[in-house]
Structure formats: C-alpha cells, structure tokens
Amino acid sequence: MVATAAAVPFLSLVALVVGGWGPLLSLDSAVAERSYTWVRPRPELAHGLQLWTEAFGTWSMRIVCLLTAAWLAVRRLFVTALWACTAVFTANLAGLVTKLTVARPRPEFADPVSVGVGPSFPSGHALMAVVGAGVLLLAVLPLLRGVWRGVAWVAAVAVAASTALSRPLLGVHWLSDIAAGASLGVCVLALTLLAWTFLPAAVRRWDLPVRP
C-alpha cells in the first residue's frame, strides 16, 4: 500500500517532466525564481543552507546507512543489516537510472547561490535523505519506548524534509525534483521492507538480537 502510494506520484512526475507538462514546468520555474530572489540577498541564509545540505547530503546519508548496517550486524541483526544495505543500493541505482533516462537540466542563474552537478531529476539529496533517515529510524525504533518513539519519527521527518527543501532554496533543483526524490525514497523503503517479509522463515531467523 505504501509502496503504491509513493510509486504513483513518482511515476506521474516522471511522465509529466518527460512530457513537458506546462503547468508543472511553470510552477517549477516560479518556485525557482522566488527562492533565488529570497536567498541570493541573504548570504548568511545561503551559507547555512549550504552547510545543512552538505551535512545531510547524499554521501553523508550513504555513510549513515552503512554505519547503521554495521551496527545492526554487530548486534547480530544480520538480515536487517542486509536490508539496510539493499535499500541504499536500490535507492542509488534507481536514482541514477532515472537521472540518466530523464536527463533534465538544472536551474540556471547568472549569479548562482550554489552549483549542482549532473542531471536534475530526481533530487539525489531528497532521495537519500528519506532513505537514510528511514533506515536509521527503523533501526533504532525497537530500542525506544513511549514518547521517544514519537520524537524519533519527528526527527527523521524533519531531517529528510529540511534537507530536501534546501535544494530548491539553493537553486540547484526544481521543486518537482524534490517531490520525485522523496517519493522514490519512500517507495524504495516500502518495497525493500515488503521483500523482507517474503524471505523464508529460516533466513529471517538469521536475525539474532542481543541486548543493546
């Protein structure tokens, strides 16, 4: 259900961007222009956004996921650790294939706030922010109780959302790139978790949790 709910907007955005749907492209352009005119005269804001997007960028989130997988393996949660690695690999592969297929140019400004590299659609930062936050969240939730579970959910959503939104504010992505990256990230998490449920019981018993 979650995978379908995330796949529909992602595939719809792919079709609309490839098809050059006017209303979406107009919205993207309007948001890009307004973001640029708001951030460009505020160097402190631009610097803060740049620090944030680098701190929680694609490579940072990949490292977070791999460290989380290593921690899970140390706790003898081998299948869960394998799921974390699979989610990262799947997300990166799906993102790369989509970028190369759609080949959408990034926003361009005469005096850019920041500079992005490679095709624009979907946003790799939005994709990995969702996947990284999701992997870490699902890894620590079993250790939390009561209000702390809610705090963990809020923190994960806040990090993913703020990282994703920093990209159009910095002028390196269109708004629809962010929506596509985030929805693809949710889809990857849901599909890899669904695949885990189809593993044979004997394989799932490889998870042998120890006390934290």
Automatic annotation (TrEMBL):
It comes from the Bacteria. The chain crosses the membrane at residues 56-74, 81-103, 123-144, 151-170, 182-203. Residues 78-193 form the Phosphatidic acid phosphatase type 2/haloperoxidase domain. Keywords: Membrane, Transmembrane, Transmembrane helix. InterPro entries: PAP2/HPO, PAP2/HPO_sf. This is Phosphatase PAP2 family protein. It comes from Thermobifida halotolerans.
